[in-house]
Amino acid sequence: MKIFKLIFRNIFRHKLRAALTVLGIAIAVMAFGLIRTMVGAWYAGSEASAPDRIITRQAVSFIFPLPLADRDQIVRVPGVKEVTWLNWFGGVYKDKNNFFARMACDPASFTDIYPEYKVTPTELETFKKERNSCIVGQKLADLYHFKVGDVIPLDGDIYPGKWEFVVAGIYTGEKPTTDVSAMYFHWDYLNERITQTQPSRANNVGWYVIKIANPNEAATVSERIDALFKNSSAETKTETEKAFASGFIAMSSAIITGLQLISYVIIGIIFLVLANTMIMTARERIREYAVLKTLGFTGKHIALLVFGESLLMALIGGVIGIILLFPISAGVAKGMTQFFPYLAIAPSTIGIAVLFSILVGLVAGFFPATRSMRIKIVDGLRQIG
Amino acid sequence: MAEGIVQVRNVTKTYKRDTMQIPVLQNISLEIPEGEFLALMGPSGSGKTTLLNLIAGIDRPDSGEILVQNTNIASLNESALATWRSQHIGFVFQFYNLLPVLTAFENVELPLLLTKLNKQQRKEHVETALKVVGLADRMNHYPKQLSGGQEQRVAIARAIVTDPTLIVADEPTGDLDRKSAEDILDLMQQLNQEFKKTIVMVTHDPNAAERAHKTRHLDKGELTL
Amino acid sequence: MKIPLSYSFRNLWTRKLTTIMTIVGLALVVFVFSAILMLANGLEKTFVGTGSDQNAIVLRQSAESEALSSVSLEEANILSTMPEVALGADGKPLITKEIVTMINLPKRGASENDLSNVIVRGVSAAGLVLRPQMKIVEGRMFNFGASEIIVSKGIQQSYTGVDIGSMVKFGGRSWKVVGLFDAGKTAFASEMWADNDQVRQAFNRQGFAVVIFRLKDKEAFASIKSKIAADPRLNELKVLHEQEFYAAESETLATFIRILGLMVTIIFSFGAMIGAMITMYAAVANRTVEIGTLRALGFRRRSVMFAFLIESLFLALIGGVGGLLIASLMQFVTVSTTNFTTFSEIAFSFEMSPRIIITTLIFSLVMGFVGGFLPSFRAAKLNIISALRSA
Question: Residues with Cβ < 8 Å from B20, sequence gap 6 or more?
Fold first, then answer.
C-alpha cells in the first residue's frame, strides 16, 4: 500500500497545520469522552444495584424519615429474607468541599445485605463491637489517607453537633465497579445522641434495604410491604434498588440531557475543524492531483488519498484525545469531588470515541474528496499553488 | 511507415470563459510520424498548449478525431483514457510538477504503481530511467534539494519510465537558466535519436525549436508551415 | 494601519466556505459559553428574586431546606411577640407560620411512574402580604377554610392533573385547584399553595415548618438573631434574611452549573481558537505573493500584521454575534430540574443580561486575537523577495 506512505507524508507536509488539526481533534475527542464519563458516573449507581435488594422509603420523598418500628413488620412479610436500614448523615468533614457519603447503618445486618463490600474478619469484629467506630471505603482511605485507628471528626448539619468516629476497618469492593467511597458508622450511636439532644427525631431511619429470597418476586414483595403502611402517617414506597437509583438519575435528567447535547455539539466542532483543514489542503493540491491524473491515476485514487488523509488525522487526533482523557478526568474528579466522587472511564466510551473519529474523518473528507477527484486535468494544471 | 503514429483530424476546440466562447483551435489536422521530434511554436494564446493537451489525452476536442497508434483517444471514456495515458504518454511540464513529499526515486516510480510490476521490477525501471537522465546518484533526494535543472531531469525520467509511445513537453525549458536548458535539450535529443522516442514539444524559444526535426507554427488556432 | 479595512473584509469573502466554517465553529463555542452563563444567571435570579430584603425566615438549625425544618407552636408563638417583628396595617404582627411539605406528581410527557417532588406550602393571610410578587393569573385565590389550592403556572405547564378544576390528592384529602398564579422568576414558581390551617390538619402536624416575618427596621435582624441564640427556648432555631436563605438553597446547583460550564467552555474555546488559527495560517500561506507585493509597494510590517489580525478579529466578532443571537433564543426555554439541596423541582430559564453580552463579545474577540496572532505575526515577518518568488 504505497499510497499510505504518500498519505502519511502529505499530512506532515504542513507540520504546523497538521499539528493544529490533530490537536483540535484531540481536545474535542477528550471533551466528548469527559462528558460521557460524567454522565456515566450518574448512571453508576443504577448499575451497581443487586437484583435481590429492594428499598423501602417514605412515599413522597426519601428525605422524609421512617420509624424504626416499621422494621418488625417488614421482616415478617413473606419473601423477605433480611432487613437493614441506613440514615444519611451528611455533615462536613473539615471543609464543605470534602464531599463523600456518610451514613449510619446497622452493622449486624449491613454486610449480610451488601456482600459486595468486603471487610477482613478482624476488622468487621471490631466494627461490630465498638459503638463509635466506622468503616471507610478503599477509595476514600486512599484519598484522605485514613488508616485503621484514625479518628474522623465530623461537623453535623442534619444531626447538629461535633461527632468523632474511629476507623475500625477499610472495605474493598467485590468488583472493580463497586463503589468503595463511602463511610458507614453505627446507627445506635447516632440514635443514642439524638434521643438526648432532639428526642422528637429519635428512632427514625432514612430508608430500609431489604434482601428478598427470590429476585423475580421483587414487585410482589414491594407491594406487600407498601400495603402494610398504606394510610399510615408515613406511607412507604418500595422498589428495586435499580429503580431507586434510577430515580436519582431522573432528578437530574435535564442536566444530563444538556450534557449529552453538548457532547454532540463537540462532535460538530471536530467535524468543522477537520473539514476546514481538508478543504484547504485539497484546494492547495489541485495541481498535484492533476499531475497524478496525467500519469494515469484515476479519480478514485485521488479520492482515496484525500479520504486517507482525513481519516488518518481523525484517528491520530482521536487516539491522543483518548490518552488525554485519563489524566484530565482524574483532575476533574479531584476538582469536583462533591459532585463526582470518582470518574471511571468505561471501555464503551473509548470505543465510541474511536468510532466517532472514524466517522468524522470520513464525513469531513467527503466533500474535498469528491471535489478533488472530479477536477479536470487542464484546469488543475493551470492552477498556481 | 505510411501513417503517422499521431494523427489529428479536423479537430476543433472552444473554451468557455464565463459567458464568452473563445475558439482556440479551428479545424486542425496534423500528422506526426513515429520517431519524429516536433516543435510547436506560436504566440501566447495561439492554442499550442491546447493542441498538446489534446494529443496527450488530458483534454477532449469538441469535434474531430485524434488517433494515437490507431486508437481514437477522443472516443475513450474517462477511466479508459486514464489507463491509456499511463501506458502511452510521458508528460514533461514547464514547472516540473514533482510531488514535493516524494524522493526523486519515488517520483519516478509513481507511474509504475499503476502497472502490474513487482517491487524489484519497478526498482530496475526507475534506476534505468534515472541513469539515462544522469541522476542515479540523487535517487533519494527530495525535490527541494535539487536544482531546477535537476528537477526537470527527474521529471523527464518519470516521463520515460513506462517506455511510452509519445513524449509531450510543454515549455520544458521555460523556467530554466541557459545552461540547464541546454542540458535538458541535449537529453531530449538523446531520447529521440538514441532511444527513438517520438517527441512533441511546445516552446516559444527558437533555440529549443532548433533541436527538433520539424517546427510547426500555430497562430490564432491555425497551423501554418 | 494603512492597508484599507476592505482588504481584510474582502479576503474573508473570497474563501467563503472556509470562512463560513470557521465562523460557525466560533459561533458554536460562543453559544455554549453564553448559554451556560445565561443558565447560571437565570438560576440565580430565580432564587435571589425569591425573597424580599425586608423579610426574615426562621428554621430549625439542622434543616437544610424548608421541608425538613420544624418550628414548634411554642417557638412560633414566642417569635410572634418579639418587637423586631413589624406590625401590619391591621396592627397585628406581620408574621406567617407555614407548613412546607412535598408531594409526588406525574410530569407531562413522562411515564406514569415518573413522579417528581413538588412543594406544597400552607400559607396564611399574612403570608400573602409578605409575598407581593405572587399574582393570580387565572381562576381565583383559594378560600381560607376550604380544601382548595392554587398552583403556579410553571407547575401546571410541567405536570399533569393540576389544571383548574382538577382534584389533587394528598394528606388524606382531595383538594380542588381553583387558580393559577404567577410568581415571576422566583422559587415560588415551583410550588402549590393552600390554607395553612387546612394543610396542618390534613397532615396532622402540631407545629410548623418555617416562620417568616417582616423586619421592623434595619437593626431588627441583628437584634433578633442574638436574642434567638441567647434564648434557651429558641436556640435550636436559626434566622436568615429571606434572600440569603434562598440564595443558599440554590448555591450548590448554581456552583455545579458554573464549574461544569466553565470547564466545558474552556475546552471548547481551545477548539475554536485552533480552528481560527488553521484558517488564518492558510490565509497567510495563500497570499504570500500578495504580502510580498504589499511590502514591495511600501507598506510596513506592522500594517500587514494588523490587516490579518483584523481579519481574525472580524471572523471572531461575526461568530460571537451569531452565537449570541442563537443563545438569546434560549430565553424561551425553561429548564426544570431537581435542586440538589432540597431535592424538589425547581424551574428556571436562561436569562440574558447586558453583562453576559459584553462578557461573551470580549470572549469571542479574545479567541479571535489568540487564534490570529501567530499567523499575523508570521505574515509580517515574511521576507519580500522570497514572498514574491513563492508563486
Answer: none
Grid cell of C309 as nine digits = 489580525
Closest Cα to residue B111, out of B99, B100, B101? Answer: B99
Mutate to test the interface with C, among A14, A276, A366, A367 (most CBs of C within 10 A): A276
CA–CA dist B152, B95 (Å, integer): 8
A368-379 tens-digit pLDDT: 899 888 888 888
* Residue C97 grid cell: 407560620
Backbone angles phi, psi at B34, to 5 degrees: -65, 140
pLDDT tens-digit series, residues A130-147: 999 999 998 889 889 999
Average pLDDT in chain C: 85
Q: How many CA atoms lie within 13 A of C40 on its CB side?
A: 18
Please judge whether A24 and C278 are an interchain contact, meaning their C-beta atoms are less than 8 angstroms apart: yes
Contact C278 A20 (CB under 8 A): yes
| Cell numbers found for residue B160 | 520515460
B10 in Cβ contact with B65 (< 8 Å): yes
Can you read off the three cell numbers belonging to residue B23?
Answer: 475558439
Upper half-sphere CA count for residue A152 (Cβ side, 13 Å): 30
Q: Is A89 left (phi over 0), alpha (psi -120 to 50) or beta?
A: alpha
Residue A231 sits at the chain C interface (C-beta within 8 Å)? yes
Q: What is the ipTM of this complex?
A: 0.72
Across the range A164-176, mean pLDDT stands at 90
Instruction: Cell numbers for C253, please give them.
Output: 446547583
Q: Three-state secondary structure along chain B?
A: CCCCCEEEEEEEEEEEECCEEEEEEEEEEEEECCCCEEEEECCCCCCHHHHHHHHCCCCCCCEEEEEECCEEHHHCCHHHHHHHHHHHEEEECCCCCCCCCCCHHHHHHHHHHHCCCCHHHHHHHHHHHHHHCCCHHHCCCCHHHCCHHHHHHHHHHHHHCCCCCEEEEECCCCCCCHHHHHHHHHHHHHHHHCCCCEEEEECCCHHHHCCCCEEEEEECCEEEC
Query: Minimal CA–CA distance to C237: which of C75, C87, C83, C389?
Result: C75
Beta bridge partners of A101: A182
Could you tell me if A355 and A270 are in contact, meaning their C-beta atoms sit under 8 angstroms apart?
no
Kindly report the pTM of this predicted structure. Answer: 0.74
> What is the per-residue pLDDT across B98-149, written as a single tens digit (0 to 9) for each?
877 788 998 898 888 888 888 899 999 999 999 999 999 999 999 889 998 9
Report the distance separating Cα C315 and Cα C366, nearest Å. 12
Using the 8-state DSSP alphabet, how is residue C183 labeled? -
DSSP class of residue A88 equals: E
Shortest alpha-carbon distance between residue A318 and chain B (Å): 25
pLDDT digits (tens, 9 = 90+) for A224-243: 999 999 888 788 999 999 88
Burial class (CB within 10 angstroms; exposed 0-12, middle 13-18, buried 19+) of A233: exposed
Per-position b or e across B16-25, b if 16+ CB within 10 A of its CB: eeeeeeeebb
Are C17 and A279 in contact (CB < 8 Å)? yes
pLDDT-based confidence at residue B169 (cuts at 50, 70, 90): very high
A-interface mutation test, from C274, C277, C335, most A Cβ less than 10 A away: C274
**Considering only CB atoms, which chain A residues are within 8 Å of B84?**
296
How far is CA B77 from its chain centroid? Answer: 21
Residue with cell 436562561: C350
E strand residue ranges, chain C:
55-60, 95-106, 115-123, 135-139, 148-152, 167-170, 173-182, 191-195, 210-214, 237-241, 334-338, 345-349
Whole-angstrom distance, CA of residue A238 vs CA of residue A244: 9
Provide the Cα torsion B19, B23, B27, B29; round to 10°.
Answer: -120
In the numeric block, which cell numbers belong to residue C96? 406567617
A378 CB near a chain B CB, below 8 Å? yes
Burial classification of residue B204, based on how many CB atoms lie within 10 Å of its CB (0-12 exposed, 13-18 middle, 19 or more buried):
middle
In the chain, the amino acid numbered C83 is: P
pLDDT for the residue numbered A383: 67
